[in-house]
Design a protein that fits this description.
The chain is α+β, with helices and mostly antiparallel strands. It has one helix at 46-59; strands at residues 8-11, 39-43. It has one domain. The chain starts with 7 loop residues before the first strand and ends in an 8-residue tail after the last helix.
Length: 67
């Protein structure tokens, strides 16, 4: 069993429907069972990590704001 660090980039099988319609680019944030990971591809650079954290901060409330 492997444990992955935050900001790891991994390869997983991703199901697609067989449609000819165009797909819009959108944010997908999810968790998955690590047994689905096919391989590790590396990790995000520090610049990209900072950008991801900034975007997540805009989308997700801070725990102290939930009360």
């Amino acid at each position: 069993m492997n444990a992955f660090d935050s900001f790891s980039v991994v390869r997983v099988p991703f199901p697609f429907t067989d449609r000819q319609a165009q797909k819009r680019v959108r944010l997908k944030l999810f968790t998955l069972d690590e047994r689905l990971v096919l391989s590790s591809l590396g990790a995000l650079s520090e610049v990209d990590r900072v950008a991801v954290i900034a975007q997540l901060a805009k989308l997700l409330p801070h725990p102290t704001e939930l009360n």
